[in-house]
């Protein structure tokens, strides 16, 4: 079985996934055993006050080493990244953070003989030449965004460290992630979060992709479950390491709007595609995640209906309370 994880560090802990994953890890492994790190953005009080927090820059190796030594870190969930839409506006920054940051984390893992590293990938690794429906685990990876390029290179680099240096690195290709806690930070699937907030708040949303645009998605509880389940899996059972397809559901922007209208009949969604439409068009409609199911028992808990009911229940309560922050 895999070695026990004792002292965990989360990079990108202030981001959409990191903020909720950090809290889940603290609940599971103990507050003091999970170090949250960020770059510049101040953490929410819940994150800041529930356990240790440090500012680092993953593109600067010395800032990583400093906290690794200080907290005796043996496990890292590396979530720091510049996402697709922001990455197209600043491709140099995306390369610096995504590639140099990942390399620095892997080097720290090798040098300090760490137990385990989680480096998530993304559906951004796929491109127009990739089969759009039920996209296979093993397929053509020719992305057309800098974010996608860094994620393909990151997968290859992680697998290299597994084979060359015997570093235990794991990762999954996340689809769009939907959550009511922390807003997304510049990805192409952000519309699937914003639409819920706008439906509750204003009963209207202007979507930046076409009505028929279909993409694979996942609700945040399943996103966290995937990360923790993969990290706790027996390494000897894994044939893949850093590139598992995982998904929760697939739907079009129009289907999402129709599902929301079941709860908020007066909701109106309009469509004004922008530069993110081209990115979305290069990504799959749905994923084949059978490798993850077979190798470490992956199974999502939420579909579109269950996710929408939960999202709208929470956001509607917050709106009524005057605490809906968007």
Q: Within the CATH hierarchy, at the fold level, what is the topology of the largest domain?
A: Rossmann fold
**Fourth-tier CATH superfamily name of the largest domain:** NAD(P)-binding Rossmann-like Domain
Biggest sheet architecture: 6 strands, parallel
Strand order of the largest sheet: 3-2-1-4-5-7
Cα-based radius of gyration, to the nearest Å? 19 Å
Helix-strand makeup class: alpha/beta
**Number of structural units classed as domains:** 2
Strand fraction equals 15-25%
Kindly state the number of beta strands. Answer: 14
Multimer state: single chain
Topology:
Layout: E1 8-11, H1 16-29, E2 34-38, H2 45-49, E3 53-55, H3 61-71, E4 75-78, H4 84-89, H5 91-111, E5 116-118, E6 121-122, H6 146-165, E7 169-170, E8 172-174, E9 176-178, H7 191-201, E10 204-207, E11 214-219, H8 220-232, E12 244-245, E13 249-252, H9 253-263, E14 268-271, H10 276-281, H11 290-296, H12 304-321
Parallel strand pairs: 1-2, 1-4, 2-3, 4-5, 5-7, 6-8, 8-12, 9-11, 10-14
Antiparallel strand pairs: 11-13
Descriptive notes:
- With about 325 residues, the protein is an alpha/beta fold.
- It has two domains: about 10-175 and about 220-245, Rossmann fold; about 180-215 and about 250-285 and about 305-320, UDP-galactose 4-epimerase, domain 1 (Alpha-Beta Complex), CATH 3.90.25.
- Helix content is about 45%, strand content about 15%.
- The protein is built from twelve helices and 14 strands.
- The chain has helices at about 15-30, 45-50, 60-70, 85-90, 90-110, 145-165, 190-200, 220-230, 255-265, 275-280, 290-295, 305-320; strands at about 10, 35-40, 55, 75-80, 115-120, 120, 170, 170-175, 175-180, 205, 215-220, 245, 250, 270.
């Amino acid at each position: 079985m895999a070695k026990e994880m004792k002292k965990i560090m989360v990079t990108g802990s202030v981001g959409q996934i990191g903020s909720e994953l950090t809290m889940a890890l603290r609940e599971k492994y103990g507050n003091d055993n999970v170090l949250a790190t960020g770059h510049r953005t101040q953490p929410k009080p819940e994150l800041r006050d529930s356990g240790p927090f440090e500012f680092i820059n993953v593109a600067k190796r010395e800032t990583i080493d400093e906290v690794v030594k200080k907290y005796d870190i043996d496990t890292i969930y590396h979530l720091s990244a510049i996402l697709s839409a922001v990455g197209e506006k600043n491709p140099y920054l995306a390369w610096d953070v995504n590639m140099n940051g990942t390399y620095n984390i892997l080097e720290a893992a090798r040098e300090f003989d760490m137990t385990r590293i989680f480096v998530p990938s993304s559906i951004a690794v796929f491109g127009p030449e990739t089969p759009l429906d039920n996209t296979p685990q093993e397929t053509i990876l020719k992305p057309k965004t800098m974010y996608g390029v860094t994620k393909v290179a990151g997968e290859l680099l992680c697998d290299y460290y597994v084979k060359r240096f015997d570093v235990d690195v794991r990762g999954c290709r996340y689809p769009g992630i939907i959550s009511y806690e922390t807003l997304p930070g510049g990805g192409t699937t952000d519309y699937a979060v914003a639409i819920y907030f706008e439906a509750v708040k204003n009963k209207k949303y202007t979507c930046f992709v076409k009505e028929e645009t279909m993409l694979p998605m996942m609700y945040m509880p399943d996103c966290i479950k995937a990360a923790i389940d993969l990290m706790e899996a027996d390494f000897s059972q894994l044939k893949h390491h850093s590139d598992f397809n995982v998904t929760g559901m697939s739907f079009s922007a129009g289907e999402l709007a129709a599902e929301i209208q079941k709860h908020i009949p007066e909701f109106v969604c309009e469509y004004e595609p922008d530069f993110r439409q081209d990115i979305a068009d290069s990504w799959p409609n749905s994923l084949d995640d059978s490798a993850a199911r077979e190798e470490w028992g992956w199974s999502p808990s939420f579909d579109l209906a269950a996710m929408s009911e939960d999202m709208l229940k929470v956001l509607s309560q917050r709106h009524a309370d005057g605490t809906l922050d968007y």
